[in-house]
Design a protein that fits this description.
Blueprint: E1 2-7, H1 12-24, E2 28-32, H2 42-54, E3 60-65, H3 69-75, E4 83-85, H4 89-97, E5 103-107, H5 113-125, H6 132-144
Helix pairs in contact: 2-3, 4-5
Length: 154
């Protein structure tokens, strides 16, 4: 799988380790910015990873900052991105199966490296279920276009 990964300075070490693990597993990993701990603003990394995923140059994205919240807010400003802050394997799986999330956002301050690895494995291993969730994604697309989701014809 093609995966884009990025982090601010607080998440750079975790992102570096995740990138290496994913490469070892055979994934193609694109890294946004340097993962060397140099201070940077999270919106820049969210923009890079989000655009890589939205353009189809990666199938999934991983973003790591102190809480994951800032990355999620910034990435979700990009049309076609569904970025989810997750804290465990279950929320990672549900973000994909129910919401078809294409970017996972993680907290470097609240999660250890091993749980981040488990979360990423659950995220990448899950697939969108479709069904009743399709209608909800169409409504999200309407919101991206500035339209009222209640106007979706059934």
């Amino acid at each position: 799988m093609k995966i884009a990964i990025g982090a601010d300075h607080r998440g750079s070490n975790a992102a570096h380790q995740l990138a290496e693990k994913l490469r070892t597993e055979g994934h193609t990993v694109t890294v946004a910015g340097a993962l060397d701990g140099t201070p940077c603003d999270y919106p820049e990394r969210a923009y890079e990873v989000g655009n890589t995923v939205a353009s189809g140059n990666a199938e999934a994205g991983i973003l790591i900052c102190g809480t994951g919240i800032g990355m999620s807010i910034a990435a979700n400003k990009i049309a076609g991105i569904r970025a989810a802050v997750v804290h465990d394997e279950l929320t990672a799986e549900l973000s994909r199966t129910h919401n078809n999330a294409n970017v996972v956002c993680l907290s470097a301050d609240l999660l250890g490296q091993r749980i981040m690895e488990k979360i990423v494995d659950a995220f990448l291993g899950a697939t969108f279920q479709g069904g009743r969730h399709e209608r909800r994604l169409r409504k999200i697309s309407l919101i991206e276009k500035g339209l009222d989701p209640a106007t979706l014809a059934e």
